[in-house]
Specification:
The chain has 463 residues and is mainly alpha-helical. The protein has one domain: MFS general substrate transporter like domains (Growth Hormone, Chain: A), CATH 1.20.1250.20. The protein is 75% helix and 0% strand. It has 16 helices and no strands. Helix 4 runs antiparallel to helix 5 and helix 13 packs antiparallel against helix 14. The two termini are 35 Å apart.
């Protein structure tokens, strides 16, 4: 259904004032990204490989366990998002969920990163079940709160950039430790797993305190007394065409990233024949990812969020296709493409996350309901569902094509199949992501009209 926005005498840009989102406070608020991002890469890249190679769990069984656990986490997201939007307490709508989620996240992380040997597959499944529940309770309200820090189109990109840069820095740290272990004790998988888990668990409490103390939550917007039931609210959200475009685009970009991430260790170790370089190349990539966020923010200020997302995704397509040209045992081209991957890292995710709050504003203007956390929960579904599909399909697929991660030597056809899945899968996914947000209608000028209409209905909350 077409949407008509009120006409305004002046199309002037909204104020770019940054009151309340100064650099120091915003950096403190963003520190919660440290344990969240520090967990993301080990879960998607190292845990499957370590549990398969060191703990002897088959790739097919691991793929099934991760698929079920991540699917569960995706289903939990919208429920938590809707409940967070409806929560009323003296501490706010977001903070109680964040604190409870952090407790579950931390306890499950202990079981996941410090497992016994041997570890029963059922224990892995239960640990993942709790970990993803805590992650949802922590992540969804936090994203919604971040989207509420500012109503300005570009300021929201700035908030997301701070989070992205701090998250990338935590990834650099969590990848540095297994790189050191690879060089000193390459066969000590338990030490590698514990080192990564230590970063997550030791950073959780300090970052939680900094985030909670950075800002007071804004007052909940006024909404009609009668609100639709949760299932009806989900239906309303899923019928929002703009949100679905962002959702599906994020699913595609995250799918591409996680196919590549899931198979990266196997690709470098088995196809390239450079097992000692696996962790180092990841470290190399994310070192450049730290500086990439501000670069993409500047580009977005000129091109707008959706055009910048398209540009970043097309760059990802070219990088992944370029990996078809790498030669086993030779590093130069792989290093160049890893450098490019670092600069492009997260460009699509950064822009799409900033776009969700804009879409939520449009929805609130049309419906009179604030469903910011619910919108971010649906956005999170795309991330977790894509992670689940990437692991649940990529690992069994390369196994079915003949690749065996425990084998000393794989056949040339099996290694060729590994290469094709590793390169073509992400390239196609990033191309689909770019196509979905090309021509996105909610640009800076349209969002300025929406915000003026919302501000006319109720004065904006100051932080």
């Amino acid at each position: 259904m077409a949407t008509t926005f009120p006409a305004f005498a002046s199309p002037a840009r909204p104020s770019a004032a940054r009151a309340g989102t100064g650099a120091a406070r915003l950096a403190a608020f963003s520190t919660l990204m440290i344990p969240i991002y520090a967990a993301q890469m080990p879960i998607g890249v190292y845990l499957p490989a370590i549990y398969a190679q060191h703990y002897g769990i088959s790739l097919a069984l691991l793929g099934t366990i991760f698929l079920i656990a991540k699917t569960w986490g995706a289903f939990a997201d919208p429920l938590i998002g809707a409940l967070s939007d409806r929560t009323r307490s003296r501490f706010g709508r977001r903070k109680p969920w964040i604190v409870a989620g952090a407790a579950i996240f931390g306890l499950s992380g202990v079981a996941l990163f410090f497992p016994p040997n041997p570890v029963p597959p059922i224990e892995v499944g239960l640990a993942l079940f709790g970990f993803y529940l805590g992650w949802s309770m922590l992540w969804i309200p936090y994203l919604a709160w971040a989207g509420e820090l500012s109503a300005d189109y570009h300021e929201r990109t700035r908030v997301a950039t701070y989070q992205n840069v701090i998250g990338a820095a935590s990834l650099l740290l969590v990848l540095l430790l297994p790189t050191i272990v690879d060089q000193l004790r390459p066969s000590d998988a338990t030490l590698k797993l514990g080192a990564m888990g230590g970063v997550i668990l030791l950073s959780l409490v300090p970052s939680l305190l900094l985030t909670l103390g950075a800002y007071d939550e804004p007052a909940a917007p006024r909404t009609p007394a009668r609100r639709p039931a949760l299932l009806a609210a989900f239906g309303i959200v899923l019928r929002d065409g703009l949100l679905m475009r962002v959702l599906l685009s994020d699913f595609a970009v995250t799918l591409g990233q996680n196919i590549r991430g899931t198979l990266f260790v196997f690709f470098v170790s088995s196809y390239m024949g450079l097992p000692r370089w696996a962790s180092g190349l990841f470290l190399f990539q994310f070192a450049f990812g730290i500086v990439a966020g501000p670069i993409w923010m500047r580009i977005a200020q000129r091109l707008g969020k959706h055009r910048t997302a398209v540009l970043g995704e097309l760059l990802q397509v070219a990088i992944n296709l370029g990996l078809l040209l790498v030669v086993p045992g030779r590093l130069p081209l792989l290093l160049a493409l890893t450098f490019a991957q670092g600069l492009a890292q997260g460009s699509g995710n950064l822009m799409l996350r900033a776009m969700v709050a804009d879409v939520a504003d449009r929805h609130r203007l049309e419906s009179g309901q604030d469903r910011t956390a619910l919108f971010f929960s649906v956005f999170s579904i795309s991330m977790k569902a894509a992670m689940a599909v990437a692991v649940g399909i990529a690992l069994p697929l390369v196994a079915w094509l003949g690749f065996d991660p425990a084998a000393a030597h794989n056949s040339p056809p099996a290694l060729r199949a590994l290469l094709l899945v590793f390169t073509l899968g992400p390239a196609l996914a990033h191309l689909v992501s770019a196509a979905l947000v090309a021509g996105f209608p909610l640009d800076e000028a349209t969002h300025a009209d929406i915000r003026r209409a919302l501000d006319a209905e109720a004065p904006a909350t100051r932080f």
